[in-house]
Amino acid sequence: MTAVTDLMIAALALYIARELHAWHTIRLMNIHWHWGWAFYSLAVGAFMGAVSHGIGPHFSDASRQLIWKAAIVPVGFTSVFFLMGAFHNSFSFDAVRWLSWIPIVFLGAYVYTISKDDSFINVVKFYAPAMCLVLALMLYGHFGLDTAGSGTVALGILIMFIGAGVQVIGFGLHQHFNHNDIFHVIQMIGMATMYKGSQLITDYGVAP
Questions:
Q1: 111 occurs within a structural domain
Q2: Is 89 helix (H, G, I), strand (E, B) or coil?
C-alpha cells in the first residue's frame, strides 16, 4: 500500500507540474516555473520511493541503497525549487538574484550530507526547515502583501505538516494501511491545496 500511495503521489505531482509549467508559458511567471520543477522533483522522488517500498526488498543491499538515494536526493531539489518560487512571490527579481545563493548552498549541503548518511532523519533536517521558510513567506504574502493564492498555498503546506506529524507518531489504521500510507494520503490533500493556491499566485509586484 505504501508503494501504491507513492505512485499516486507521483502521478498527482506530475499532473500539477505540467499544469504549472503551462501557466508559466501563458503568464510568464517565474514562481510557476520553479514550482513546476518542484513538483517534477517530487514526482521522481515519489516514484523511486514506490520502487524502494515495492520491489526494493528483492534487490541486493547495494541496489536497495542506490534506489533509496534516488528517492531522497530529489527531496533536496524539491525544497530548492519551492524556495526559489517563494522568493519570486515575496521579493523583487533583483532581490531574488541576490537571495538565490541560499537554496544553492542548501542543496550542496543536503547532497553532501546524504552522500555520507542517507538516514531519513537527515532528509527531515533539511526538508522541514526549507518548507517552514516557504510557509513563512506564504504567510507574509497573505498577511503582509495581500497576494492572491498565498494563503491557500500556506494552508496546503500546513496540511502536509499535519501528515508528517501523523507519520512521526506512527499512527496507523491497519497493518496494510499504516502511518506512511496515511501520511501519503494527507500529503496529496496538501498538494492539491497548494496547487489551487498556485493557480492564483504571481511574481512579486505583478497583478493576478
A1: yes
A2: helix
pLDDT, greater one: 180 or 116? 116
Alpha-carbon Rg for the chain, nearest whole angstrom, is 17
pTM, 2 dp: 0.90
Query: For 118-129, b where at least 16 C-beta lie within 10 A, e where not — what string?
Result: eeeeebeebbee
Is 204 among the domain residues?
no
Q: Which residues contact 25 (CB under 8 A, 6 or more apart)?
A: none
User: Quick one: 117 exposed, middle or buried, by C-beta within 10 A (0-12, 13-18, 19+)?
Assistant: exposed
Residue 111: per-residue pLDDT: 92
Q: Residue 95: which domain range? A: 2-198
- Per the structure, how many domains does the chain have? 1
Residue found under cell 505540467: 18
Nearest 5°: CA angle at 194, between 190 and 195?
115
- From the number of C-beta atoms within 10 Å of its C-beta (0-12, 13-18, 19+), residue 200 rates as middle
CATH, residue 134:
1.20.1070
In a domain, 102, yes or no: yes
CA dihedral 203→206→207→208, nearest 10 degrees, is -20
For residues 91 and 99, the answer to whether their CB atoms sit within 8 Å is yes
CA neighbor of 206 nearest in space, from 33, 97, 82, 89: 89
Has residue 207 been placed in a domain?
no
Least confident of 28-37, 87-96, 179-188: 179-188
- Taking only the tens place, the pLDDT of each residue in 49-73 is 888 777 766 677 777 888 888 889 9
